Amino acid sequence: MSDHYKEARQVRWLGHPAALLLTVAVAAADTGAAIAQDAERAPNNGTDPTWLTTTAAVVYEYNDIKPDISRHAPRLDLTIPFGEKQDYSIRLRVPVVSNDVAENSDFGIGDVSLTGTHVFGLTRKRGLVVQGELILDSASRDELGTGRNVLKGTFIYARFLPKGIFAPALVHSVDFGGDDRRADVSVTTFDFYYVPKLSNPRAFMTFDPALNFDWEKDAQFSSLAVTAGVAVGKAFGGLAQVYVKPTAMFGSERPGDWSVEVGFKVLGF
After folding, report:
1. Which of 123, 120, 118, 94 minimizes the C-alpha distance to 108?
2. How far, CA to CA in Å, does 61 sit from each of 42, 74, 124, 215?
3. Which of 34, 95, 136, 215 is surrounded by the fewest CB atoms within 10 Å?
């Protein structure tokens, strides 16, 4: 067979519909692989509840409770994942609190908490998360904490959508000891957490509407928290970011009017 004939047959084959479909399929597969690789390389910004990472945060929280009564609570958070699949984590939270409820605005240690998290059932479409948080009656003054030891249990169902993450959660808090003179704790929260996918990979937002039921006080109220943040570069061996999180509360039985939280985080160090 002459070389000219071979070349002519190759040209005819490349123009065949089957070859065209094969070429398109290979190109699509390459594009899909590239997109998947980009997604895998995307830095963890802390908004996906199923993606655990080492995190350190310095946070300041302000709560507007009542007219002429406010709460200031800077705190330190440290989260460390562990396990063969890094599907477990533990978080330590240490708040320093000041409020003028008892006409003493000095800062003191608040209720320290320890949170354990486990991620399971993870697929391309969804993931499940359970958390147990132990909030200790560790406040240095009565008005700086609840006066009770509190156990908070959380179940999260995270659904991965084309344009974000929807992760509703069921949370229940109950006390199991502490100062008998202080009010008991029994609160259920239905949380409707949503993370939209933004065009800027350095920026992130979350929307966090919730319904809250305080069974001890027979009170119900709703709330809406919105977080906006941006990655600011590498620091301390990880990815640094800053964020702001305002929260508004609604309903005649709400425990406060509004709050705002600002923070600096380092993830993945």
Report:
1. 94
2. 29, 6, 35, 26
3. 34
* Distance separating alpha carbons of residues 176 and 182, to the nearest angstrom: 12
The DSSP code for 35 is H
pTM of the model: 0.81
**Higher pLDDT, residue 152 or 15:** 152
Nearest to residue 74, comparing CAs of 47, 53, 100, 93?
A: 93
Range list of H helices, the chain = 3-14, 17-41
At residue 38, the pLDDT reads 41
Residues 26 and 34: their CA atoms lie apart, in Å, by 12
Go through 158-187 and write b for each residue having 16 or more CB atoms within 10 A of its CB, e for each that does not: bebeeebbbbebebebbbeebeeeeeebeb
DSSP string, 202-264: TEEEEEEEEEEEETTTTEEEEEEEEEEEEEEEEETTEEEEEEEEEEEEESTT-S-SEEEEEEE
Cα–Cα distance for residue pair 94/104, rounded to 1 Å? 20
Sign of the C-alpha dihedral computed for residues 197, 203, 207 and 208 taken in this order: positive
Per-residue pLDDT band for 65 (boundaries 50, 70, 90) equals confident
